[in-house]
Amino acid sequence: MVSPQIIKRYPFFGGISEEHIKDIAMLGDEEVIEAGEVLYETGEYVDELFLVENGEFGLYIQVTDHSVDQSIPDQLLGTVKMENVLVSTVGPGDLVGWSALIPPHEATASVKALVESQVIVLDGEKLRAVFAQDRNFECKMTMKVAQVIRQRLTARQVESLAFKSA
After folding, report:
1. Which of 49, 69, 103, 115 has the most crowded Cβ, counting Cβ within 10 A?
2. What is the CATH number of the domain that holds 86?
C-alpha cells in the first residue's frame, strides 16, 4: 500500500473521488527499477500499471533493421530482422503500462529503465476488479487512459516529422 497523498500528486488521477484514490493506494507498492531493466516487451501481456515517481523510462518500438540485408525468403517466412528504436521517454508523474487496463492487455511498445527509477506498481487485475464494482469509475479511468494514448500518438507524430526532416 502507498499513501493516498502520493496518488493524488499524479495529474492522471485528477477528478477521481477520495474513495477511489484510497482504493488505488491500497493496490500500490513502491519499487526500485534498475537502469537497463525491461518492464515488458512489445506484444507481451501487461498486467501492471506503473506510476513513475522518479527516474526515466524509454519507450521502444520494433522496426525493420535496415543495417541487415533482408532477403525476400526472410520477408515471406516472417523472419525479417527487427530492432528496437527509442521513440519517446517518460519521467516523473507519467504513467507506463496503460495496456494493463485496456484489453487485450498487450504491450504496444517495449519499456526500459534508462536510469535507476522509482515507481508505484498497481496490479491491473485488482484494479479492473475495482472497476467492475463501479462502471462510472471504469469509464472515467478509460477516458484518462485514452488521453494518455492520444498524447503519446501526438508525440510520436511530432518526433517522426522531426526525424524525417533531419
Report:
1. 49
2. 2.60.120.10
pLDDT tens-digit map of 114-162:
999 999 999 999 999 999 999 999 999 999 999 999 988 887 766 665 5
How many C-beta atoms surround the C-beta of residue 39 within 10 A? 20
First to last CA, the chain: 46
| Structural domain includes residue 138 | yes
pTM of the model: 0.84
In our burial notation (b when 16+ CB lie closer than 10 A, e otherwise), range 45-76 reads ebbbbbbbbebbbbbbbeeeeeeeeeeeeeee
Question: Which residues does 141 contact at the CB level (< 8 Å), separation at least 6?
Answer: 16, 101, 131
Torsion of CA 144, 150, 155, 160, to 10 degrees: 160
Task: Tell me, rounded to whole angstroms, the distance of Cα 141 from its chain centroid.
Answer: 15
Contact assessment for residue 55 and residue 33, using Cβ atoms and an 8 Å cutoff: yes
- The number of domains in the chain is 1
